[in-house]
Amino acid sequence: MDKIKKTKKKTVVNCKKTIKELVKILAEYESEINRLQAMIDYDFLTGVYNRHGFSTEAEKFLKSLKNKKNKRNGMIIKDFLLIFIDLDNFKKINDVYGHQVGDKALKAYADVFKNSVRTLDIVGRWGGDEFIIGAINTKEKDAYQIINKIKKELAKIKVPGINENVKFGASFGYVSARNNHRVITNLGELVEMADEAMYQEKIKNKNSKSGVFKIKNIFNATIPKIFTKGEKNTL
């Protein structure tokens, strides 16, 4: 009997040891999976979502918007505001100061975008000098407030190696998923609409009389919005 008890005790000890080792291995695997997932979903330079990561998250919210019974982070998704951003004259920064300094400027821009919205909102680098924001349960009329906040913070950017007189700016275009009494749950369509609105704003900025690196204050004029045929611009 004693021999059997000793054998059982040894078996239990070995099992516990094996389980402990397996838990450690699983933790290491989980850490590696998270690291690889971050490489897939995040832009290594700026720390915000890359296009793939942003698209994945945005489509989850849009799916919840389409089906009111679905919840995200414990919330019923009622609206989704997409803001498309293009950095003004960023190529000039790279040309004058070099890409290494330009990378620091990109990071500074991304930090402003990320810190100007709520933690539940999503921010991504769409590519190059284009960024994108998804504001959850935010109405179109609130876009001005968000963009105004971003503009004020951009004016405070100081990047080592860049002349302090350089003004950092951007052009914005936005669209709500609840557009003209219909719900748009196709991310590609929303991006295309917001991009077009941003492009119109970019043209205004280029036609302004401000100097190199400066941009026109977009709040001296109405931010362009996409209107469907026959809809009256009441802005």
Task: Write a structural description.
The chain is of the alpha+beta class and 235 residues long. It has two domains: 1-41; 51-220, Reverse transcriptase/Diguanylate cyclase domain (Alpha-Beta Plaits, 2-Layer Sandwich), CATH 3.30.70. Helices cover 48% and strands 15% of the residues. It contains six helices and eight strands. The protein has helices spanning 2-41, 51-66, 90-97, 99-115, 143-154, 187-206, and strands at residues 71-72, 75-76, 80-87, 122-127, 130-136, 170-176, 178-179, 182-183. The strands form three sheets. It has a four-stranded antiparallel beta sheet, sandwiched between helices. It has a two-stranded antiparallel ribbon with strand order 1-2. Strand 1 and strand 2 form a beta hairpin. The longest helix has 40 residues, at 2-41. It is flat. The model is unreliable at 209-235 (pLDDT under 50).
Task: Describe the structure concisely for a colleague.
This protein is an alpha+beta fold.
Kindly state the percentage of residues in helix: 40-55%
Find the structural class using helix and strand composition.
Answer: alpha+beta
The rounded Rg comes to 24 Å
3D shape: flat
Main β-sheet description: 4 strands, antiparallel
The CATH superfamily of the largest domain bears the name: Reverse transcriptase/Diguanylate cyclase domain
Report the CATH C-level class of the largest domain.
Alpha Beta
What is the mean pLDDT?
82
Strand order of the largest sheet: 4-5-3-6
How many domain modules?
A: 2
Beta content comes to: 15-25%
> Uncertain regions: pLDDT < 50 for 5+ in a row?
209-235
Number of helices: 6
The N- to C-terminal Cα distance equals 90 Å
The CATH topology annotation of the largest domain reads as Alpha-Beta Plaits
H-E string? HHEEEHHEEHEEEH
Tell me what the CATH architecture of the largest domain is: 2-Layer Sandwich
How many strand elements?
8
